[in-house]
């Protein structure tokens, strides 16, 4: 086994003397077997179709040798002596500390990525998982050949929304895995725009990309604002986000802080309730004539404010019950009307059948008389 992902395993071998990679999809036991079979077959078909369409449109992809639906496996060409785009960019960034020189070295690669994206989108092919790990480079640094792989999430859509989402996925993956590479991604977008033949469609895709970016920014802004400052009204305590931490540590620390604040809030409310109860108990020691809380027999007595609130609640309950009764009456009336309509329709059908029978009998009698 060469590698394993979230959807499949990769095995390296030979296919009649040719270097081959077998991609075998998992059987997902949490799904119904029939549903799992149909979904995996659909995904395999769409993956193979996208691969073939890209090859027809001039994009270099691994050649498909065979598909076996019984074992959920695809046999394809192994691109030997190839490096992922992610590895190539990491090596360039490690060797060159200056971002400007890195951008100059990666400019031809960015143009190749943008041109292949434009070819895909002109043929209405959506990759669905555009990352630098799903792009391969082969050959000399001066004469590189570019390959696209892993069409497992591909689809065939012509809308600008889907194409914008495809580019946005690439942008997020590119900037997260390769920091300080915004200029390189700008080169990708410029090459994409220059390669697209339909300029109006290109403008729509880029405008949709801007909209999708705004959605993502709103989401990140709300998350960051919640993580930076979360205050509680009772305690007044504020949980602040610590910079330069991993995502897992930050979320774990945030969760513990939230739990502590919740406990403090709960303890505060309980202590407040106890203090109120003690104060009410102290009021009862004034005398038996004044009923402000708990009396000597520890029975609850109501003052004038409590009685008014109870009266309001009773009135609300009565109004709610009245509305429920009205709704029930309306439902009963509707049901009766439906029953009457059904009965009338049945009676009309019976009358029509009787009339038809009478007409048929009259015709028969006439025919008998004519024959006699």
Automatic annotation (TrEMBL):
Stated family: Belongs to the protein kinase superfamily. BUD32 family.
Protein name in UniProt: non-specific serine/threonine protein kinase
Low complexity bias locations: 277-294
Biased composition (Polar residues): 299-308
Molecular function terms from GO: ATP binding; hydrolase activity; protein serine/threonine kinase activity
Leader sequence residues: none
GO cellular component entries: cytosol; EKC/KEOPS complex; nucleus
Composition-biased stretches (Basic residues): 321-341, 362-372
Catalytic EC class: transferase
InterPro entries recorded: Bud32, Kinase-like_dom_sf, Tyr_kinase_AS
Quaternary organization: Component of the EKC/KEOPS complex composed of at least GON7, TP53RK, TPRKB, OSGEP and LAGE3; the whole complex dimerizes.
Subcellular location field: Nucleus
Annotated catalysed reactions: L-threonyl-[protein] + ATP = O-phospho-L-threonyl-[protein] + ADP + H(+); L-seryl-[protein] + ATP = O-phospho-L-seryl-[protein] + ADP + H(+)
ATP-binding is among the record's keywords: yes
The entry's keywords: ATP-binding, Hydrolase, Kinase, Nucleotide-binding, Nucleus, Phosphoprotein, Serine/threonine-protein kinase, Transferase, tRNA processing
Region (Disordered): 220-247, 263-372
């Amino acid at each position: 086994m060469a590698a394993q992902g979230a959807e499949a395993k990769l095995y390296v071998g030979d296919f009649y003397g040719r270097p081959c990679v077998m991609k075998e999809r998992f059987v997902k036991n949490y799904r119904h077997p029939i549903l799992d079979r149909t979904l995996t077959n659909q995904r395999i078909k769409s993956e193979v179709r996208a691969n073939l369409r890209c090859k027809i449109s001039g994009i270099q992809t691994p050649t498909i040798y065979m598909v076996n639906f019984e074992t959920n496996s695809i046999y394809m060409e192994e691109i030997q002596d190839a490096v992922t785009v992610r590895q190539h960019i990491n090596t360039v960034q490690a060797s060159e500390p200056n971002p400007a020189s890195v951008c100059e070295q990666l400019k031809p690669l960015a143009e190749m990525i943008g041109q292949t994206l434009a070819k895909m989108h002109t043929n209405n092919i959506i990759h669905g998982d555009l990352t630098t790990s799903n792009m391969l480079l082969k050959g000399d640094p001066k004469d590189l050949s570019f390959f696209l792989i892993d069409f497992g999430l591909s689809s065939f859509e012509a809308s600008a929304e889907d194409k914008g989402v495809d580019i946005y996925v690439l942008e997020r993956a590119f900037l997260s895995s390769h920091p300080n590479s915004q200029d390189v991604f700008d080169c990708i977008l410029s090459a994409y725009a220059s390669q697209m033949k339909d300029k109006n469609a290109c403008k729509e895709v880029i405008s949709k990309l801007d909209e999708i970016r705004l959605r993502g920014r709103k989401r990140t802004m709300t998350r960051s604002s919640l993580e930076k400052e979360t205050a509680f009204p009772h305690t007044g305590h504020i949980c602040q986000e610590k910079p330069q931490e991993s995502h897992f540590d930050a979320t774990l620390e945030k969760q513990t802080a939230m739990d502590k604040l919740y406990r403090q809030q709960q303890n505060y409310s309980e202590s407040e309730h106890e203090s109120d109860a003690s104060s009410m108990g102290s009021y009862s020691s004034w005398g038996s004539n004044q009923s402000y809380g708990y009396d000597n027999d520890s029975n609850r007595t109501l003052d004038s404010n409590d009685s008014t609130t109870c009266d309001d609640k009773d009135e609300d309950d009565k109004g709610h019950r009245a509305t429920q009764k009205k709704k029930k009456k309306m439902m009963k009336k509707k049901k009766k009307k439906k029953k009457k309509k059904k009965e009338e329709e049945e009676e009309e059908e019976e009358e029509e059948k009787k009339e038809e029978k009478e007409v048929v009998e009259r015709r028969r009698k006439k025919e008998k008389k004519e024959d006699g």
